[in-house]
């Protein structure tokens, strides 16, 4: 499933292919995307996989679980469509999803 990451400075774009069923965070780490730290390995505990989902994609994602929602209140540079990349399962309907990486993580 194709995913597009825009760097925090807006200067570069990385397009990656994430295996079906992986999370967006797992795909980002596999491909070495800068700025997706993912300290907790996907447990929705660390908040260091924060991404700002482009608004046109936000409605296609499942609602955040309480643990994700709580972390999203304390991540740096939040926005209305902020999500944790480890809580985004990549499915075919997300083909081409675009997210912005914040300039800093927790
Ligand atoms: Fe830790 Fe997503 S990897 S919250």
TrEMBL record:
GO terms for molecular function: 2 iron, 2 sulfur cluster binding; electron transfer activity; metal ion binding. The keyword Metal-binding applies. Keywords: 2Fe-2S, Iron, Iron-sulfur, Metal-binding. It comes from the Bacteria. CDD domains: fer2 (cd00207). Residues 1-105 form the 2Fe-2S ferredoxin-type domain. The keyword Ribosomal protein does not apply. Belongs to the adrenodoxin/putidaredoxin family. This is (2Fe-2S)-binding protein.
């Amino acid at each position: 499933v194709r995913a597009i990451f825009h760097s925090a400075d807006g200067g570069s774009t990385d397009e990656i292919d994430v295996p079906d069923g992986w999370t967006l965070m797992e795909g980002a780490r596999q491909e070495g995307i800068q700025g997706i730290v993912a300290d907790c390995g996907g447990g929705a505990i660390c908040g260091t996989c924060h991404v700002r989902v482009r608004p046109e994609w936000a409605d296609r994602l499942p609602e955040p679980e309480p643990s994700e929602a709580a972390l999203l209140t304390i991540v740096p540079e939040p926005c209305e469509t902020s999500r944790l990349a480890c809580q985004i399962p990549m499915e075919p309907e997300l083909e081409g999803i675009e997210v912005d990486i914040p300039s800093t993580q927790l």
